[in-house]
TrEMBL record:
GO terms for biological process: autophagy; endosomal vesicle fusion. This is CNH domain-containing protein. InterPro entries: Vam6/VPS39/TRAP1, WD40_repeat_dom_sf. It comes from the Eukaryota. The lineage of its organism: Eukaryota, Metazoa, Ecdysozoa, Nematoda, Chromadorea. One of its GO terms (cellular component) is cytoplasm.
Amino acid sequence: MVNFITNFNLFEVTVCCNVTHQLNADEQIDVIGGSSSIVLLGSNHGRIIHLKKDNDSYLVLGSFQLPNVKLLFSELVLDAVSSRSSVLCIAVNSNPIVDDPFCLLIAIATASKQLHICERRNGKIESLQKLITDSNISALSFARSTVCYASSGAYYIYNVATKSVISLFPFNPLLIQPQICSVGMEFLVSGMDGLLISVTEQGVSTRPPMLFSSLSIKAIVYSSSYVYLKSGEEISIIKRDQASTIFRFSFEESRLSQTLQVANAKGLCSLDGTIFVCSNSVLYQIQMITIEKQVDALFEQRKYDTAIHLYEEKLHQNYNSGCFANLIELKKKVAFKYIEEHKFENLTEILISAEVNPEEVVSQLALQTGNDLWERTAQLSDSQQFLTCYLQKIRDLPFIIPFHTSIDTLLLKLLTIRGTPEDVFSFENFRPHYPECIEFLQSFGYHNCAACLWLSAGENCKAWDIWKRLSYGELKDAAFNFENLVTVLPTVTERKLLIDIMTWLIPLAPEQFFKAIVDASMVDHETIKGIFNGDCKLLRVYLESIPTTKEVAKELCNIYIDSIVAGDLSYRHRFRRLLLEISTSDRALLYDRIPSECGVERLLCDISQTAADILCKVISTYHDYDAAELICSHYSSIQPDICLQLLKFLEESPVDYIESSMQSLLNCMGNAVDLEKIISALPESAALNQVWWFLFVILLFTTIF
C-alpha cells in the first residue's frame, strides 16, 4: 500500500492487553494462538488465557489449565493435539488446494520422527498420509500441496501429491534455530550466517539469499507484503517487492523498512493477517501506522510530494470519500506551504486539483508578501506573476463559477500593475466588479481603459463622460486617441445620450464626426441642426457632408451668401459649384441677394444668359479662368463645344495657367467633340507634350470603336 520511505517509521507497537494479574508469580506467556478476534495466550504452566477483541483492545474472558500441554498454535487443531502424544510441531495449510472450503488440512510432526498429513472435515480429523523422517522435525510450514520442514540439521520439501521428498541445504542446529515461513508460492527459511533463503515448491532457489544483520532469527511471519523477523528483543520488518506477485529476497529487491524494540519479545505470530507479539505478561500488536499519521509525519519532514502520493496510491487501490477529503485538505496545506516558501513551480497544478478557493490563495499570498500585491511596481514580483498566470488558468474552470467576478477583478488589477490592462478585453466572458476596477484603473491613470470597461459593462454614459474629460484635457492618458471615438460613436443607441455627445464632440472635430452622426439614423436632420444652435460654420460643415437635396442646397446657398456678405470669400468656389447644380429657377431667386461685387456668381444666376454668354463674360469681363473652367466642366456633357470656346481664350491667359487648364478642358471634352475641331481650336502656343496623351487616347478610342 505504501512505498518505502527512508528514515520514516511505517509501523508501531501498541499494547493490546496486560495479563499480569492473571498470571502466577513465576508464570509467563510463551506462545500466542487463536484468531484476530479471539486470542489464546499459552503460558509456561500449560495454562491458556482467553482474550476477546473489544474495539481497539482485548478483554480477558477467562483461563483454563491443560495438563501436559505446553504449546498451542491454533484452537482449530485442538482435537489433533489431544489425540496424539508427543506432538512437536503443528502447521495449518495456509493456501490449501481443495474444493471444500470447510475442509482443514493440517501437518503434524511428532516425537516419533513422523510427519502426519491430516484432514479435518465435519468436526472429525482423519490422517491422510504419514512420512517417516530421519530425526524429529524442529520447524514446519504447510502451503498448497507442499510441506517444508527442518530435520537432522537440514531443510526438506515434501510434496503431498507425489509423496516425494527433496533435500534442500544443511544448517548447524547448534548455531541457529530453524525458521520456516510460507510466502505466496515460496518458502522463506533461515540459514547460516544470518541468511534468509527463498525456495520454491520444487525446492529451487530462484534468487540470491538476503543477508540479515542478526545471526539468531527466532521467528518469521509474513502478512500483507511484509515479512516480520524476531531476533532477541528486535522485530525487523522487510518490505515485499511490489513489482512481483511473489516475495523476492535480494539486496536490490527487498529492503529493511523498520526495526521495532519489544522487551522480552516472544511468540511472534500472524492471526488472520494481524501481527501479534508478546512479552512475559503483555500482548502487543504490530500494526502499520495509520495513513493519516504517516502523512502528518511526512508533512513535518517537508516531504510534501511523498505525502500526497501516499493518499493518491491508497485511493487508487480503494476509493474512499474520507480519504479523498483528506487528500484535498492535504493538498491545500501543501499549497499554502509552497506559498509560504515561495515555491511556485508546481503550485498551480496542486491548487487546481484540490479546487482551492482562489480568494484564500490571494489572502495567503497577501499575507506572505505584506499586502503589497496591489502596489505600483516597476515589474511584477514572483508572487504577482504567479497569481496572474494562476488566475488566467483557472478563470474558465467549473469550480470557479462562484468566484468568477472576484477573479476577473483581481486579474484586471494585476494586469494594470503590469501595465497591460487592455489585455482583459481579449478574455471571454469577462465579468469583474466594474466600480472597483474603474477606480483602480483611474488611480493608475488608465482613464481610456476605464471608459472602455464602462462601455463593455453597458454603462455608456459613464464611458462617454470619461472620454469627454479626456477630449477637453481634464484627464491625461497617453493611450487615448481622439480619432478612435469615430468608431465608437455608432455604437451609441440611446437618442438622448447621442445628442448630448454630439453637443460637445462635434465642435472639437466636426469633419471627423459628421459622417458618423449622419449614419446614426435615430437622429433626424432637424435635431442635428438644433444642436448647432446658430453656429453657421458647424451647420455648413454638416450640410456639406450629407447628400445635397433641394433643401440642403437652399440652406447652403444662404450660408455662403451670408459669409460672402460678411466679407469671407473663401467659400466662393463651393458656392459657384452649388449654383451650377441647383435648378435655374432656384438660381434666379438668389440673384438679388448676391452682392454686386460678386459678378461671376450673379452671372450664374442670370437665367437670361446662355452658357456660352456666361463663359464669354466671365473671361472677357472678369478674367476668371477658374470660373470659366468650372462652367465648361459643368456644361461639357450637354454642350461639349463650349470647351472649344475656352480653348480659344487660353492664348490670352497667363503662361503658367495654359498647360493645366488645357489638359483639364481636353479631359472634359473626351471624345464628345470632333478631333479636327479640337486641333483647330488649340492655341498656337500649345506644345505637343501638352496634348499628346489626349490625342493618343482619342485616336485609340476612334480606332477601336
